Amino acid sequence: MIFKYFRKLYDWVISKADSKYARSFLFGLSFAEASFFPIPPDVLQITMCVSKPKKSFQYALIASIGSLLGAVFGYFLGVKLWEFVSPYFFKYVPTFTYENFIKVSKLYNENGFWAVFTAAFTPIPYKVFTVSAGVFRINFFLFMLASTTGRCLRFFGVSALFYKFGAPIKDFIEKRFNILSIIFLILLIGGFYIIKILIK
Fold first, then answer.
1. CA-CA-CA-CA torsion for 113, 116, 119, 125, nearest 10 degrees?
2. What's the total number of domains in the chain?
């Protein structure tokens, strides 16, 4: 059942990848994922790159800008609005508990740059770190430097692969779609598990 869902999503995005709305949707998804939304933008970015490999770097730029602006918004939520939005995060975002917040604060004090960079570059849920960075008032310049480095390496790295190996990668995805869907889910779940390890 889940494979059919991913397949429909994949086919739909492929059909819309060159529409005037695809870039806006990629930007919006990248923005939202960096601050409050659970689904990473990589799925849409990859699908758009599969459809139009020559525009891969354009998509990477859109995803990077959207994500970094979303990171600023997440930081702002932590600094200015945490009192009002914290019930949502504590209820719906895994690992957002008071005890874990204290542990994350210690993590920031010890390795602020690397904590943010790791979340920006890996499948670790980035929003947990953007919002908590604002709550704990970590240096904004350091936060943006780590975020920019991690997000650009991630999105442009993906796009570079599709720009160079567009057609073969598309064939590879088409033939092994179910297996790749499983890998994606494992990475997504693994990201939450890594957070639990980091904040122990």
1. 160
2. 1
